[in-house]
Structure to design on (532 residues):
């Protein structure tokens, strides 16, 4: 590949006092690629995300987007948390356009685009609803639309479905794949759920326990579009077993 | 209006009437002499008879209460914002403010009059002094309760500090602010009355109360208490109304101003107001 990767983290090291949180972690994500990161809790997944979003300057290493250095500066990625962080006093549309509202002010075009997004992805009847009137899954959809409406090519999703029940989570995963397929964004997705990581991604990066580093990289060669059948297909199981083996240091249990 | 809504409005009215009835029954059953506790009828009669005298006094007390309330609320809000912005201001001011609230109000009525004169000003100052404290404490709590991750998200979005404050931090203070204002609205009247107990060239209901107390004109005292209570209750209701207007998301499931009329499905959704669709 001659072109620079869409997103790259190059030899990131981060310390909190005496604790080495991340040691020499490097990763690259190609344009339009969907990459999952799994790792045991406390391995520095969220710290790595904070560094790549520019919230936290690393002690060493650089972050680049399209080859341009963005280390320690914000405003280059879309970010989504496990909490939906919707503002209770803004409606669905008001929350989706938050990025514009916080920077240059909301234009008619922003609003129209927000309505269009919400309508396209099943919230057309709820444009003027306040978040408290929505279910957990709907709120998380709004949060993703808010991330999309910020118009960043790179999306960092930090366990976005971690707080949802398993059924809603599965729906949201399928929906996310649909959105990703249509909107052509580059996604880096943190989760501790191996099924989720494999189901969604082109590649899964496995992080080691503290100090966090990228211990392994597994390509997920499962055809898209992926549906419910995927979850029980042999190649899905094989990939999952490999990752479990890497995470827990065993060969993985036969299923 | 459905019957349920009528019922909701009627309940408090019936409750207040009930208090009057209970008052009348107790006075009659226990045969309380009318120079100890007058009957509600006697108190209301005194109110009607003395209305011409009391009306201008009522106006003065309402003015003191209202102006003092607004001054106190604005002052409290501004102080809280300054204190949350600058830690040093908070560390210096907070203990002073807490200390100030330990001062018995009655004790500063006369000193206030000496400093601020005998007109409206000392009364306004005392009302404001009572109202501002709960506002400071509650607004500070509101500002401190804003989710760190929400502020991080705003940073990732490259939000401008002024807009982040206006759109994220300020609205978070509204609910606690209104709790403080509801308390303040009821306390404020007491402040105005106490303020009038100093020397005054602008007599109000507090002055009147003092005079009628000294004459042991108990019917008039009760009539004044009724009026003072009415001021407090009206203030409380006004704050409640303002709260509903200012924080629609707490009582409604959709914004008041609808974007567009959509499919008929919307009506089903709106019918489930407050509930999860």
């Amino acid at each position: 590949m001659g072109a620079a990767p869409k997103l790259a983290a190059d030899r990131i090291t981060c310390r909190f006092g005496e604790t080495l949180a991340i040691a020499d972690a490097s990763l690259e994500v190609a344009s339009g690629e969907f990459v999952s990161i799994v790792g045991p809790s406390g391995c520095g997944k969220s710290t790595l995300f904070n560094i790549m979003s520019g919230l936290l300057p690393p002690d060493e290493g650089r972050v680049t987007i399209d080859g341009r250095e963005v280390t320690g500066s914000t405003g280059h990625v879309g970010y989504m948390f496990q909490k939906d962080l919707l503002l209770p006093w803004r409606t669905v549309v008001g929350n989706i356009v938050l990025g514009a509202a916080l920077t240059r002010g909301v234009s008619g075009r922003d609003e129209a685009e927000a309505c269009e997004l919400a309508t396209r992805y099943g919230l057309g009847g709820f444009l003027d609803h306040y978040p408290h009137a929505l279910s957990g899954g709907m709120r998380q959809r709004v949060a993703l639309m808010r991330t999309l409406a910020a118009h960043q090519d790179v999306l960092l999703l930090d366990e976005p479905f971690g707080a949802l029940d398993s059924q809603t989570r599965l729906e949201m995963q399928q929906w996310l794949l649909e959105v990703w397929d249509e909107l052509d964004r580059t996604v880096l997705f943190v989760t501790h759920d191996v099924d989720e990581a494999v189901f969604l991604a082109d590649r899964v990066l496995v992080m080691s326990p503290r100090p966090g580093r990228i211990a392994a990289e597994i390509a997920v060669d499962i055809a898209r579009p992926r549906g419910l059948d995927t979850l029980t297909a042999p190649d899905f199981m094989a990939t999952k077993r490999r990752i479990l083996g890497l995470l827990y240091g065993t060969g993985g249990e036969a299923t | 209006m459905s019957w349920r809504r009528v019922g909701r409005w009627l309940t408090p009215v019936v409750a207040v009437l009930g208090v009057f009835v209970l008052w009348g029954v107790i006075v009659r059953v226990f045969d309380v002499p009318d120079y100890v506790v007058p009957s509600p009828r006697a108190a209301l009669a005194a109110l009607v008879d003395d209305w011409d005298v009391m009306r201008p006094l009522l106006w003065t007390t309402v003015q003191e209460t209202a102006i003092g309330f607004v001054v106190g609320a604005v002052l409290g809000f501004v102080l809280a914002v300054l204190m949350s912005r600058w830690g040093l201001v908070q560390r210096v001011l907070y203990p002073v403010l807490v200390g100030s609230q330990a001062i018995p109000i009655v004790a500063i009525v006369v000193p206030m009059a000496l400093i601020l004169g005998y007109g409206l000003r000392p009364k306004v100052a005392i009302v404001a002094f009572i109202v501002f404290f709960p506002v400071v404490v509650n607004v500070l709590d509101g500002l401190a309760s804003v989710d760190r991750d929400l502020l991080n998200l705003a940073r990732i979005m490259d939000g401008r500090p002024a807009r982040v404050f206006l759109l994220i931090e300020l609205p978070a203070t509204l609910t606690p602010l209104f709790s403080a204002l509801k308390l303040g609205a009821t306390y404020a009247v007491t402040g105005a009355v106490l303020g009038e107990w100093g020397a005054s060239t602008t007599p109000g209901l507090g002055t009147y109360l003092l005079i009628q107390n000294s004459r042991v004109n108990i019917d008039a005292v009760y009539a004044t208490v009724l009026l003072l209570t009415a001021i407090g209750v009206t203030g409380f209701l006004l704050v409640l109304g303002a709260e509903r207007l200012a924080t629609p998301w707490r009582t409604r499931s959709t914004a008041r101003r609808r974007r567009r009329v959509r499919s008929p499905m919307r009506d089903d959704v709106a019918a489930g107001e407050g509930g999860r669709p």
